[in-house]
Structures
1.
Amino acid sequence: MNLQTLIHSDGAENTIIMMTGADLRRLIDDTNAWTRKVVEEQHQPRYFDIDDLMKLFKVGRTTIYNWMNSGKLPEPMAIPDTDKKLWDQAEIRDWVASGRVGKYKQIKPFKTIQL
């Protein structure tokens, strides 16, 4: 059996792990896949615009404006020198999780969406 040596250091101590070349390759592939996923998640947009909210809640622009004007929707950020407004994704997630959106529109539980 062809064993490969992997030395892991956590700063305090070193650990030597012996494994086959195939197992080491799988470990490296799994680690690379996990790293790519983390990097992709970090680069997801942190804000929703009105079109994103319309897709998420399956409602029209007028409904979003009505929710904004009545104070039902979390306060958006205004982009200077434009009419564009953005909502923080975390605030929208919290709003959905709190059940407040259910008073206005029945939707499925919040899931990460690709926009």
2.
Amino acid sequence: MRPASADSLRAVLASVRLQLLIVAHRPMNIATGIITPWMFMSLYLLPRLNKVSESDVTASVTASMVGALWSASMWSAAGIIRREKWMGTLGSTLSSPLNPFLAILSKVVGAVAHDTALITVSVVSFCAAFRLPVRTSHPVLTLVSLMLVVVFGVAASSMIAGALIISRNPFHLTNLVGIPVLFLGGMVVPPSLLPAPLSWFSVTVNFYWLREFMNTLSSPAPAYHFLAAGTALSAAYLLLAYLAVRRLLALAKKEGSLALS
């Protein structure tokens, strides 16, 4: 008999692959993965293209990547739950033999991996097209940071997915957190440029800390405390997502149905 852990791993990998195939055929994912990064990079750099510095390029690349991934997640990774609630398939997903949290997490991983790949290609193509000066003092850490974009994206998307799971108005909740967090979370607008009463919000966003860490990779000494703060927030996001799934299952036992939307 095959161990249960092996069967679970196969189920997770199959779910990730299926979600990759699903999002790869959605025009919205192409728009958010390719067009959005080019738009952000153009706004940051084209007005000063003749005098752009390496630090400017680094800042624009990191902002474009995390900002575009957050925007994409609203329609792909976190949007998975919104669509499943709308289509009435969430109950089937959560009542499958696979652990309910792993079922949600595997879908999110597939969508985030696809979006990150598109965004990376888009940013690299922009830098190549305009021959922008790109330099990193820590190539290995840069590669690790690109992988962390996926990890942090999965954590943030899972938390939003968890909120959508227990929400009776997932579409309105998506609108509530999408654009405001993008601009107030320190992803595309530095907190120093925001009004003082709003500048604190960025410290609650894991992408902000990842962006700050990535911005220091062109210096001799990267700021690891930024990475530590982002990692801690990502772990907290995953915990909140797990508790949200547990909350839904508890309500389902009480109501006798997973159709709580």
3.
Amino acid sequence: MKNLSIITIIFCIVCSTCLAQVNISSSQLKGTKWKRTDITSKSIYEYTDKQKIWTSEFGNNHFYSYYLCSTPPTSFDFSKVGKGTNGCYLVEWNSKLKRMEYFTVISFDKSSGKLVLYYKCKGSLDCSDTTMEYKMIK
């Protein structure tokens, strides 16, 4: 029984450090551009005060309204878009698909230009849990 308790404690510590979360503010994202470093892609992600603009490697622009919050969202709160929000969850609205997605901010260091987001697949057959690493280019 003692071994089971020790294993459970170690498991909890490992899980909490693997998915550590940091709070950021929308003002920290505003005006920045990012490129993913965990995959080979020429896509660029830019944050304005209200939108994330994804410019695909083919030159197509995709626009997502976003905000930050401190608890996992259950629905998209349009009233928070463009406001000075903060939190460890980056919440986006895909207007083309009419659905919300959210990402956990694992790490953010503007001085070194590094952002790490975690996406937990929420039941869709066409997705998987993903950790995304970005390097700031502006």
4.
Amino acid sequence: MDIQSWFDNNGSYADGFKLYSELPSRNNNLVRNFLKENPSNFLKLKYELKKALLSGANVVVATPTIRVKKEPEPLKTVVKDSNKEIIEQSVETAVKKESMAMYPMELHATYRERISNWYLACELKFQLNACSGENDEAALKLIIQLEDLWTKIDRAWKILDHWKDHNRIMPTDQSENFSSYSKDKLFLMRNRLEVRISKREKTVQSKREAVASSPEDRTLLNALNSKLEQLHQLKIDLETIRKLLKDE
């Protein structure tokens, strides 16, 4: 069975799991998550296999022998006003433990964005829980939105933690305006950034090891932080360019 056949024949979760686990581009964290079968994971599995198919991958595997743990179907829920209190408690516990005054002005927008994204992610999660089992398309859109929000929230935590740990400011925006560039130039810049990021990640790893060997050496630590900030900037630029190419 290949991926296209799996979609054409409404393949089972176990078959889809086996197909995804055989992909060269698979995410091992997702593989571990997919060991538990539930409606949310099934939608995510479909999304990942569709992405793989559109990228040209169409692996063929034998009938799977691996067994996944199937969870019971969740009860259908309705989003209620009482959920607002739950969301507020979640925000207070997770992201409002520290005041904005703890951070420099340059990071206040990041602090506010983290909180607003957390609110929205909680609200979307309630909407996802309330989706009926038949509304796969709506549920998949919510999952994609949630993934994007959690990526932004994680990035904000990283920036704020960097300040708390080192009193240094991570980049928070693209290094230049890429919107005026041609599509061909964006493709070229994307490819170059991917190479630079790969090289910079190796440099960061090397400097991490140096710092681990001499934790009291402030020069080594500063050099590591400088490379981490440069790497973060490269990733922001790459993400910006990828979005521009996707929107064209």
